[in-house]
Design a protein that fits this description.
- The structure is a homodimer.
- Chain A is an alpha/beta fold.
- Chain A has two domains: 137 residues, Aspartate Aminotransferase, domain 1; 248 residues, Type I PLP-dependent aspartate aminotransferase-like (Major domain) (Aspartate Aminotransferase, domain 2), CATH 3.40.640.10.
- Chain A is built from 14 helices and twelve strands.
- The radius of gyration of chain A is 21 Å and the shape is globular.
- The termini of chain A are far apart.
Chain lengths: 395, 395
């Protein structure tokens, strides 16, 4: 009576969601202070006060129709111009507002880009483990295939040999996510240069551009080193961005797809993304939030709470004896399961009301993800539990 | 290099959009007061002050994280409860919040429902001309076929004989839109009873429920008669609703799909819609707007400006000699092209900077649509132009 695929997508809960719901139940039983929930990537830093002040000002200053009416499908020119100006200031680019297509967050941008670049049922996209679990459903439901390159452990950069072998004439795009969810690792400039060189060579081999689809919700959340701006290295880069993490607005669904002028057949790529946005039923990105971004495009997030948490949990776990990926950005720490089995280790932790996500769904079954976008005190309280777990494994 | 379908959807502008853009250009040349733009269905009534006050209160009263964080995929329980309570009060139903799935407007709800109900590439949906042009793209891109039942002219009810013949074992849903865009007509209780009886019989024949998908963005915009509440007549009704018109929030993208408890296999249908919402990349409906609806679910729109416009344009055109469909709801007047050819008549009107949408794309090539959600003075100023056109046709 209904689509089997849609029913499955709607019924099978993600492992993250399961843990989060379990945490809420346990909190009701044992008390909130006794549950250590590191499951969700929901920013613990509130939206900057400038954002809420912008909302007040917009409602007080503008006529209601200017705030809440339809914008054009790609978004208002003023919001897109504000974003282009911000990028141009920071990266020395000369993007125009017509290079930007506003979306309901990065997930919407990725969905639209996947559809736009899917030629037929032979189309392939490539992702690198560990990767955001929804990539596979975005690619599959676009009618394409997602090829996963196994994780480059322990550096979590890119295994170029495997990538080289995986590209063929049907490869349309390679999805890059740096700073990375779930590893917290940033691709080095060397990695990006290597990737660009390989893709240039391969594009020439297959006779069409292979796009980099750069998923960048964590671009501003950087604690160590720099995030190379990929269009500087590779012209056929499409950026999918979200203000969910940088302005702590995950529920508001506001972000964009950027198609730089350097992209081959720029207008076709841009228009196909717009077409996908249309058939996906988006109409336009939420209009009040477009006004907010117009006024807040230059606002920087307050990283202090994440820096403090990162310090505490990284040093704490390392001291206990855990092996962690270098946590340079985002708000995740990717930790090797000391028993070698992430699912079993997550289950063991759950017994102590410590909720950490096994890397299995991220394509990395020997690591667990710790989201440290949480209350600092909870991080403190959790360390003895991590210690107990390590002792248990070693016993 | 890109999907041909997506490129086409992104490049071929709707006729409505073309006219609207043309109007903006002409206004720059001949002055805004000399362009009579009846093309868009953008509410001219601003959002009720309660809505903007709710936004101020939410930002002032709630912690930032409570406003802007992810909600669960189907929407916050409080927003869904507020909507269920409003419906239950008005329609004597006993809907639960778990029957509601919040969406980024009715387009998102229709897209998700189309995908949820598409079993395979033989699946068919049925729409009645005149119909909202995007229906065909929602159905087609879900992988299904849209069958259009020709318009029942001049009453714009339903031609049951043709409907009867068009239903087969692959028919999954019949899309109903009353008050109707573009005709402004409301289906009578007799029509809804007839439809329910026919679909009950046909469902039994084909051995599975044929759903009514009721697209109801104009439910509250009623000037004459009543809008029958379809779930009272037919249990397998799924409602797609939007606050775009009732609260004048079209840019904010907030609405819902309602799966009443009476729907067969309720949970499967609901979960398949949720699965579709997930793979379409929606994540959740915009969170601040969920709070707004929590507080404003009971607010009624100010219909006075539409009532005044309707009176003026309907009487004015009728007096000149135009034949109009009975404009009972929404903010559209559907007018027979006096020369019998809507496209030609729209072109002729365009020469006089009068912008009206030919019914061709709505499946009704002998009528034009006039959106009277516009400035009252423009309606006044336009009447002599309508008169001139009629004289031209008669000459």
């Amino acid at each position: 009576m209904v689509s089997k695929d849609m029913l499955r997508y709607g019924t099978v809960r993600s492992c993250i969601r399961e843990l989060f719901e379990y945490g809420k139940q346990r909190a009701a039983v044992v008390g909130e202070e006794n549950v250590y929930d590191f499951s969700l990537g929901n920013p613990s830093v509130p939206a900057p006060e400038e954002v809420n002040q912008a909302i007040r000002n917009i409602v007080n200053e503008l006529p209601s129709k200017a705030i809440h009416s339809y914008t054009s499908g790609p978004g208002s020119n003023t919001a897109r111009t504000a974003i282009a100006n911000n990028l141009n200031k920071r990266f020395g680019t000369d993007y125009k507002f017509t290079d930007l297509y506003l979306t309901a967050g990065a997930a919407a941008a990725l969905t639209a880009v996947s559809r736009a670049l899917t030629i037929d049922d032979k189309t392939e996209f490539i992702a690198f483990a560990p990767f955001f679990t929804e990539y596979s459903c975005f690619a599959t439901t676009a009618g394409a295939k997602l090829t996963v390159i196994p994780a480059d452990i322990p550096a979590f950069q890119i295994n170029f040999e495997l990538l080289d072998k995986s590209i063929n004439e049907n490869t349309q795009g390679v999805i890059v996510n740096s700073p990375n969810n779930p590893s917290g690792v940033i691709y080095t400039e060397e990695t990006i240069k290597g990737l660009a060189a390989l893709l240039k060579r391969k594009s020439a081999d297959v006779g069409h551009p292979i796009f980099i689809i750069s998923d960048e919700p964590y671009r501003e959340l950087v604690y160590e080193g720099k995030v190379p701006f990929i269009p500087h290295y590779y012209p056929n880069t499409i950026i999918c961005y979200s203000y969910s993490k940088s302005l702590s607005l995950p529920g508001e669904r506001i972000g964009y797809a950027l198609v730089p002028g350097s992209v081959e057949d720029h207008d076709d790529v841009y228009n196909a993304i717009a077409g996908a946005g249309r058939i996906l039923g988006y109409v336009c990105a939420p209009s009040l939030m477009q006004h907010v971004i117009t006024r807040c495009a230059d606002i920087k997030p307050d990283l202090r709470p994440y820096i403090e948490n990162r310090e505490l949990i990284y040093n704490g776990l390392t001291e206990i004896g855990y092996n962690c990926a270098k946590p340079s950005g985002a708000f995740y720490l990717f930790v090797e399961a000391p028993n070698g089995d992430a699912q079993a280790f997550s289950n063991m932790a759950k017994q102590h009301d410590l909720l950490i996500v096994p890397g299995n769904d991220f394509g990395c079954p020997s690591y667990v993800r710790i989201s440290y976008c949480v209350d600092h005190d909870m991080v403190k309280r959790s360390l003895p539990v991590f210690k107990k777990l390590m002792e248990k494994v070693r016993a």
